[in-house]
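Record 1 of the preview.
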Amino acid sequence: MGPLFAAAALFLLTGSVFVPTFIVALVMLRAPIRAFVLSATFTIGAFAGMLISLLGAALVVNRAQPEWLSTTLRIFYLGAAGVAGGVLAVWLLGKISKYPPWRRY
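->
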């Protein structure tokens, strides 16, 4: 896959995960730097979770099913793994940092 595909994937990830998370965090926290850290951590965790689940999707989803069903199951699997990866990354950030970014001070 070429650089155009990588740019499209980055644009899709930024537009569908980072921007909405940043807007919600900015409204809730009212601190742009904390909102950026929180949304960037969630986005990176979601991306890592999706990449790791790509390997697992080949093992979990049975290829003997019709193609439309296996594709749908892979999409749901990748989405769930992305959310789990984002939540895990934010949880780890809260455990590692002295001041978690989602608290108001």
